[in-house]
Amino acid sequence: MQGEIKKDMSRKKAILRAATAFFSQKGFSETSMSELSKITGVAGGTIFYHFKNKEELFLAVLENVKAEIIEEFGRYFGEKKFENGMEMMEGVIFFYLYLAGTMEDHFLLLHRHYPYKLAEVNPVCRGHLEAIYNCLADIFEQAILTGQKDGSVGDVNPRKTALIIFSMIDGIARFKTYNLYDAGALYNEILAACRRMLCRDTPAA
Amino acid sequence: MQGEIKKDMSRKKAILRAATAFFSQKGFSETSMSELSKITGVAGGTIFYHFKNKEELFLAVLENVKAEIIEEFGRYFGEKKFENGMEMMEGVIFFYLYLAGTMEDHFLLLHRHYPYKLAEVNPVCRGHLEAIYNCLADIFEQAILTGQKDGSVGDVNPRKTALIIFSMIDGIARFKTYNLYDAGALYNEILAACRRMLCRDTPAA
DNA sequence: TCATAAACTGACTGGTTGCTCAGTCAGTTT
DNA sequence: AAACTGACTGAGCAACCAGTCAGTTTATGA
Q1: DSSP string, A119-153
Q2: φ and ψ at A199, to 5 degrees?
Q3: Domain A1-51, second-level architecture
């Protein structure tokens, strides 16, 4: 039984993994199920045996993306400890840009249009997206709240400022994947800008 | 003759206008040429008489988007005068978010994936995108440079900081179109964050 | 050993796609 | 009036699409 599950899982997971890459890199409608079956070495009907249609396959991919992103952030902030809120914010920014590089497909999918369009009519899809964005926004907010307690962050609206910084970092990550300009070259400037934005008061000159 | 040209132009422009809306709202591959011909009340072949294929039609749309965005910014900054660089930056941010609302289709198109994917293999497409982004980044940079001359903006790297603020504003505009959260509710906080980011020094407490 | 179920197959279907092309026709030039 | 032009038409085409299903293989539990 364990063996069977494993074999089942390996097929199903192979399809899921290939679908993640395809949906991310080519988009939903440009991804063809027959191409997907060809690349996974599986008959056309097998995909429809595991996932009842293309949209359900997409939702399964999105659910997996959600789980892995949230898990990665959970692991990082479970291990890592920070001196104060401002340092935590720097850690969040670093890790976000780092993940956008290592889990490129996951973030590419979130930078596409299809998930948000589907979310308008599909509550499951909307749920996944909200879970991801709430998790991320919460982390940014947590850094600000921590900083306000320990004095490293000034008096700003925590939630709104978190959303603004999140937009900024996500925008940078998005531009990077489009090769418009490089996030790496801006990294130090980003941290400096954030520090100025959040610091209690700016050092003179 | 004038009449005939006018008739030609109205058809071609009708196709272009409909294509802009479709490519923006539905994406490239979800937009069908036959649907486009139906909505413009034109025979299927007519579109291919004016534009040799779907990709060329898209490029014509993008060129038009480029021209209109650059024109709008040119008009605004041709008329409006600012007290200093910081005020100009606030004007840029206001106008960007305002345009993203009134010219929704144009910005929606730029928030899609297809243009950037096409740009990788099509120099004409790449040229249009670079023209748009250079124009926008230049305006943000100009505000910073002006502010540094008149003393309203502190000592930051002008180009890099311009790109960071641009990413931030564009990210906000993008999230707004996805209905993830509202840019309007963040507007005051955005301006405050920018002021803190750029100010020579922060007033105490 | 065998019955049952689960996993898998690939030919098939009805529908859509971007695009072509032979031909129509109003208007202009010769 | 003959010759020509260029905008426009719509039937038609090959390629491809998501999804189905009758049938085969494989694994499991008794």
Answers
A1: HTT-HHHHHHHHHHHHHHHHHHHHHHHHHHHHTSS
A2: -60, 145
A3: Orthogonal Bundle (1.10)
Quick: pLDDT tens for B167-203.
Answer: 999 999 999 988 887 778 999 999 999 999 998 764 4
B112-140 pLDDT per residue, tens? 999 999 999 999 999 999 999 999 999 99
Rounded to 5 degrees, what angle do the CA atoms B125, A177, A133 make? 120
What secondary structure, in 3-state letters, does A31-81 show? CCHHHHHHHHCCCHHHHHHHCCCHHHHHHHHHHHHHHHHHHHHHHHHHHCC
**Which nucleotide has the shortest C1'-to-CA distance from B47?**
D8
Instruction: Kindly report the three-state secondary structure assignment for every residue of B52-121.
Output: CCHHHHHHHHHHHHHHHHHHHHHHHHHHCCCCCHHHHHHHHHHHHHHHHHHCHHHHHHHCCCHHHHHHCC
Is 2.60.40.420 the CATH classification of the domain at A56-198? no
Domain ranges of chain B: 1-51, 60-198
Q: What is the pLDDT of residues B81-114, one digit of tens each?
A: 999 999 999 999 999 999 999 999 999 999 999 9
Residue type, B101: G
Residue A89 has pLDDT above 90, yes or no: yes
Contact assessment for residue A15 and residue A50, using Cβ atoms and an 8 Å cutoff? yes
Q: Which fold has domain B60-198?
A: Tetracycline Repressor; domain 2 (1.10.357)
Interface of A with B in 34-93 (CB under 8 A): none
Nearest of A9, A113, A21, A180 to residue B113 by alpha carbon: A113
Window 149-168 of A, Cβ < 8 Å to B: 156-157, 160-161, 163-164, 167-168
Q: Measure the CA–CA gap between A8 and B19, rounded to whole angstroms.
A: 45
